Amino acid sequence: MTEDEFDAFYATAFPRLVGQVYALTGDHGEAQDVVQEAFVRAWDRRQDFLADEAPEAWIRTVAMRLAVSRWRRARRWLDLVRRNPPADRVPGPGPEHTALVAALRTLPDAQRTAVVLHHLCDLSVEQVASETGSPVGTVKARLSRGRAALAARLSAERDGDDERSTKEGGRVR
Predict the structure, then answer these.
(1) Dist CA 74 CA 81 (whole Å)
(2) What is the DSSP string of the chain?
(3) CA-wise closest residue to 154 among 144, 143, 166, 162
(4) Quick count: other Cβ atoms within 10 Å of Cβ 168?
(5) What is the pTM of this model?
(6) Cβ atoms within 10 Å of 106's Cβ, excluding its own
(7) Environment class of residue 147 by beta-carbon count within 10 Å: exposed (0-12), middle (13-18) or buried (19+)?
(8) How far apart are CA 138 and CA 55, in angstroms?
(9) Which of 17, 61, 63, 161 is 20 to 30 A from 111 via CA?
(10) Nearest Cα residue to 60 out of 24, 26, 28
(11) CA separation (Å) from 145 to 1, 76, 105, 139, 141?
(12) What pLDDT digit, counting tens, does each position of 45-70 carry?
């Protein structure tokens, strides 16, 4: 089968095969995926299809087997999840994390990027410079200004919490 013949075959057979596999899977997207994968596999064997005389049957068989294989894999995964269920509740971010994220959001983009890459992603100053396309000196300045701004915002927030706690009759930390 030539490339042009294969293209014509694809155009006529694809919708029909998707409909057939959809009847098996009940999922139109999954049917399209496995039929497409079967056609990709058939592309490498297109020279042999003339001898077969049944290229559509071959592709349908491959697509059905792919669909069953995916279904089995999904079922094994579901069984695994049922045997080892995830924790009932994942704890949310703590107040320190929330305060840090809020303070980071107030920084200019360049400073925030430098601080996050250096302090949270553990990149060296040189790596941050390389990743952001900035000179090393510029990254150092952004880190210095960003840390100073964060320290001021976080200490102001902490002082505000202490004042609220005192007014409410609580203890100062």
Answers:
(1) 10
(2) --HHHHHHHHHHHHHHHHHHHHHHHS-HHHHHHHHHHHHHHHHTTGGGHHHHS-HHHHHHHHHHHHHHHHHHHHHHHHHHHHHSPPPS------HHHHHHHHHHHHS-HHHHHHHIIIIIS---HHHHHHHHT--HHHHHHHHHHHHHHHHHHHHHHHHHHHHHHHHTT----
(3) 162
(4) 7
(5) 0.46
(6) 11
(7) middle
(8) 63
(9) 161
(10) 24
(11) 67, 52, 14, 10, 6
(12) 777 765 457 788 888 999 999 999 98
Per the rule left: phi > 0, alpha: psi between -120 and 50, beta: everything else, 147 is alpha
Tokens of 48: 């042999």
Q: Is the pLDDT of residue 173 over 50?
A: no
Judge contact between 126 and 136, C-beta under 8 A: yes
Tracing tokens 């300045």 back to the chain, one arrives at 141
- What's the CA gap between 156 and 32, in Å, rounded? 57
